[in-house]
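Data card: per-record layout.
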Amino acid sequence: MRHADRPVLVTPREHLYRRREGDFVSHWSGALGEPAAVYGERITSIDEVVLRRWDPTRSKLGAALANGWEGPLPRDGERWLYLGASTGSTASHVADLVGMDGFVFAVEKSLRPFARLLALAQRYPNLGPLLGDARDPMAYLPIVPRVDGVYLDVSQPDQVEIALANARWFLRPAGAVVLALKTASMGRERSAREHLLDATRQLETATEVEETLSLEPYHKRHFLIGARPTGRLYRPEDRPPTTRPARPAGRRS
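The structure for this 253-residue chain is written out next.
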């Protein structure tokens, strides 16, 4: 690879790299898994760091990066709650970004993708799969501590409510909510932009929305929304922050 074509580190606190490829900027994460590739993505290396190309057609967060996302991102040493992790394509990149000092609690309710997520976790020491329904955060409340970010990618009409419910129980006051909004799941009787407007209004009852971005052409009728919690998110009966993450059952030591 020519020096001019090498991926460039975005910031010291993010294991995220950019590379100019003609008119397109590709994104790469510093791989923690061994072997590195998770879903057939391209692999390269720079300065002894193995990098995985973030395929925007396979990942909503990858599509947002390709479209110029400037909202919240997982950073080194952070803990994130990932809701709707499926087989772990995007969750593995999030695990790359938080690094060995961070952790990703990955919730998935369907057994078939969860089995693949479990296998992936054997290669990622900072990825903890949880078999559960994101609509029922109380089920994993004893396992998941306060986190720095909540990322949600579920195809449900009440996806905003699910995001807020989990943020209420798990998100630190200085954390972030990142929501991959699938407007097709919210009904076809309204336009994607109308659903986006409704979603942002709902989020603004308890958060401050920082960024909204269309994921076209990679994912039709999808948007990524980034928000920060306000005092309206939390209720007096919510638990106090915990200081140490519990390891999900079945994790290797």
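Known properties of this structure: The helical segments are 60-66, 89-98, 111-121, 159-170, 192-203. Residues 159-170 form the longest helix (12 residues).

See the next section for split statistics.
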